[in-house]
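Hi V.,

You were right to ask for the full record rather than a summary. Here it is.
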Amino acid sequence: MRSIATVVLTIAMAGSATAQEHAGGGYAFGGIVSIRQPGPTGEAPQTYDTAPGGATIGWLIGIGAFVTPVVSVEFEISSTGIMTAREPSRYGMTFNEERRDRFFTSAARFHVPIGRLADLEPVAGVTVVRSESWSQTEYFQFWLSPQQQRVVEPRVANAAVLRFGFVAGADLRIGGRRAAFVPSFRWCPTGDGLSERPPYATGFPTSTMRAGAGLRIDF
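Predicted structure:
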């Protein structure tokens, strides 16, 4: 906590001008995010193989450009970490599931000054989600009783699935005109991907919550 506070204070003191933005400029940003999606995690019995969920640590990078002094447009790439679940199921089968989502987002950002060194920035846009997943199946050959030999199949990569959704949230920009510390929050509702024949019987999670912090450089 002390190191984070030191970074915030250093950035804030570095900007002698206000946080007011100017049309025609641009910026780049990046950061670390905590992402949560609904779904099983750890060892969780399931009737059918199910998309794993839970909280993971991921990342984001992006660029933006001002179209007016208080509105900018931007493009962002972000990623979850690897979500995993071990799912004992019917007929002595166990599914070991892994999954990762990558988000490709276009959004509009609104810059609302709330102090000399701070802006509140609502964000809204659209996203394409590329869902990558891997599966491994374990089962027992019951017909070899009493041995009941356990079989572990190779880990396989499933075909990637594209889904579409919306993004809404807000950032708090703290700092000068050139560099700033930016805590952020996002909510992203998406489709379940069932029309694309996903590897999971119930499709993918349809809601993503994201909180994070990063740095932004204006130029």
